[in-house]
């Protein structure tokens, strides 16, 4: 019958208000809560008791460092609130019978990681009962089932996007039963659960995938031209000569020709500055075209605690070491920088906190980091949004919180009203035309141009359906570059048919318990090097054996673990053994690199790295062709190369002066381009060709080991640490591009799988899979098939199998597998094969060698009767030479006898 809701604070106070209103319509009634502070939806959340007489709410201060929110209850018609929980709690939810309230508790560790837990407390007060233990990530929006026997909640694992609903069962006493069950959502949900209906449907808001594209359009309007690929592309700013557009791309600064074309990432050479901040990255080019200004994310440790700031930096436009101009706490943050027309000053936005409320101000600073000046006060109502200098450099134009655009003298003074707008938003943008006669801005998802002389505002037609957000005016005033934003809209969905919970599968095992998948051994009848690679369809193995390149079908006539007949590919005079292999996405080509030049060590760390060439060869047979010559590599494992899915580009490592870097080379013989400034190896293209996974390297001749698993846009950009590792190697992508399998040292007996989170700044969740029993080491990962099989090359305890083969050649047949056999010999009647087998290692200093026999048609070997000889020896020779006498009753053999 009643609905409770929050009301925005007025200008004179930072306290919000709470009201209730009849669901059938009527006048709202204010609940007389004390001074009430709240923030995002979880903190804003209200819950009415089932009888509508009591309200539960969270109130307190929330910022980047502290969360003092507590849960209170108050009679709707009363005026005395009662504190129910301790600090750091929010998200209250009454149980259907009104006896209990579920809530979420928040905490941080010294690394600033967020932890949450789910609890219930008697509605009248008392000791809370824990339902979900403290765990990394966010628990959000608990709702009760209509019968009060279950609670559903949204879970967002640490540094990942929220795409999970969890359900937990409760006893009549409110104790948790079993392990919570998870439901994976088809899209992300940044909202609390909408409710749980009596017919067991759960309402959730799911968000459509978001994207951005940069276009250019004539300033007079027209048909827009796309200049960047779809992705996270914002804050387009033109170079002074109009030839390039600089923009923020997924945290990096990227440039693209103003007509469209290949993008170029501007490298930030800093161990602290990890990328640009959003909103408000800036990335604006100085009037002389030499320097770029941006709001940078700076990560560092302070008093052994992880900390971060958003400060203003400048950097050469071609990339390099950034120069820090400002420093401010992470609670405040400097953003939205822009150059003065003469290039001598930079203006930016910095907040201040008064009475626990944020107020924005415009500051100016000289380009050398001196003369920091605040030019606004609270009465100027500066919004947290972009700013721009007027072309004469005398004023700075800004969005104001009273839904207007204003300007203020650059030296401070009284602000001036320019024009009214529909609303203000940090995602909007504004820019003066180069001649200073018109102001372009975005509002309501469209581009507008205001003419101060006439006072008229006209829409710039673009022909683009997505919302226009950020913009930049070309130096000649003829075009406007703008960001078009699409997706991101939330729709209400109903989740049903999920009960009983057993339908969701078995209870979740502990995260620490490794997965136990099925392993199938593929028997290749030759000695493999480390060079093995599965074809994209998972049906063929490319491998190096006997210094030759082979392709082997993974199906044969003997059984599922025995492949078909290998086919040798033509490699000409190129020597291959310790080489890298890579398939094109269509499976038509295989790339490989040759061994180091004769007389050169393949582990030369003196700086004279071996010279090599890279080739491609048709997988169906044909002549190989050289793609690249005189490239240098230095470690066996680093020989790995990767063809792009379209087969046009090769990613590889090359070494100069003991430093290893990843390069991209055109298969058609184009020039090579360095992808990264950081030392790296083992590149691997993603299935869509947009990303490259790689392993960071510390350099040759160093003992500290390597660092973690990273990804980087194939078009260039800032690298992203996906998973920390001591010595990661051999990354392979899942076919859908959502996961990467890799290895880590020491003693690589696990296959690690890292998920790719949607959040660009997040690390991936890593799952460990134990290798099969008897594995000494997993040497390399060969690929990931479309039916989710991962190929791996294993160094295992030695085993020997017995095969028979037609004398004229043909398909080999396995007789006895894993029998560790030496010197197999036929019996005279052809029915048995006799062989020598040593005992297990480690029994004692003597080793008893026994003779076994196996049916020649196949089977399991068994010891010969005791009246056959049993030898106590010191060591078994590999050429023991056992032979059967003509009458079949005696065997002659040789052995080292221990005396």
- Number of domain modules: 4
CATH topology descriptor of the largest domain: Neuraminidase
Q: What's the CATH superfamily of the largest domain, by name?
A: TolB, C-terminal domain
Low-pLDDT residue intervals, each spanning 5 or more residues: 506-515, 597-609, 634-638, 700-705, 841-847, 866-879
Structural class given helices, strands, pairing? mainly beta
Number of helices: 1
Strand tally is 75
Helix content: under 10%
CATH architectural type of the largest domain: 6 Propeller
Distance between the termini: 98 Å
The main pleated sheet reads as:
6 strands, antiparallel
What does this structure look like?
The protein is mainly beta. The chain has four domains: 206 residues, 6 Propeller (Neuraminidase), CATH 2.120.10.30; 276 residues, TolB, C-terminal domain (Neuraminidase); 205 residues, Neuraminidase (6 Propeller), CATH 2.120.10.30; 96 residues, no CATH class. Helices cover 0% and strands 47% of the residues. It contains one helix and 75 strands. The strands form 20 sheets. Strands 68, 69, 70, 71, 72 and 75 form a six-stranded antiparallel β-sheet that branches. The radius of gyration is 34 Å and the shape is globular. About 6% of the residues have low confidence.
